[in-house]
């Protein structure tokens, strides 16, 4: 039996801790906050459930992740299954069903005419444009000039706050829509609803939202809350963490904190400048009462305001609201003042009324073409010393909840059994 410390009680930390405990190890989890969950934490505001970062739901295409999930949770009892019902609110307030490429027929006649011209050009030119080399080219080549200009470009520029030509495709691997030209045409002809995109159907807790998931994963784990890790020391085969000795360390925190924590115990000096330069975005999540609607996500490409989407978390479960009220989260990339929040809310569709807000500094890691190679090389050095990196900001990977669980399963099976 190994004695292992897991640093961080987000989804990644909780998942690997459960796997290690079930594998017969003695595991201690250290968490700086007063409850588990990391980015999936929720609060109760005026009797309504507030997802403090996003609106986290569960679905997966990985059989092993689903089987592991079902070994912990009672899906029939504790969850409801929902079909995603999302729309794009265009600058003229016209609502286009999501994904937009399947519903181009809902655009104005002028835009639809341009879309048809784009498709004709794409059919005529075939693959003469070659393979896309960045995110902008991918979107433009795949969907045409009209959809790129009216939706994909403004929406993604609001999220990522950068020229999309500078975004490498590898960073968003597995998260991009991949319909063929034939599928786009076919779906528009027969008005077929797409069911293969991310979270087209999902499971959501009947009570407690994603905090319920975190709390359930945390059950029976030895978690030390409100505890900061101030250093990671190595003495012979022992890792000293807050004066306790462990055989191995699973670091699920932020890799930017690692050089200071290690303090040259393991020489990673050649990586420090690259770690320091890693880019990221934060999120300001504004909890609001909103007009009644049937939607789950409302995407906001308009440049008239800074918010990029409304997550109608109140529609995920009736228990998320008080009677007669529908709540949701309006999301802004990075920090925005309350004064500017209120000015923006006046312009946003569905009349969001401010309740509270939270700014989270680290929510979206941003990769360049060298990031994954750098992280892999760093992992190879650290793992020889018994220190493992796992999680969105430890690995600098854009993990959803199911992907975080999958990464924990992969690490356990390949390195920690």
TrEMBL record:
Pfam families: NAD_binding_8
Gene Ontology terms for molecular function: flavin adenine dinucleotide binding; UDP-galactopyranose mutase activity
GO CC aspect terms: cytosol
Cited InterPro entries: FAD/NAD-bd_sf (IPR036188)
SUPFAM superfamilies: Nucleotide-binding domain
Name of the protein described by the UniProt record: FAD-dependent oxidoreductase
Annotated organism of origin: Bacteroides ovatus (strain ATCC 8483 / DSM 1896 / JCM 5824 / BCRC 10623 / CCUG 4943 / NCTC 11153)
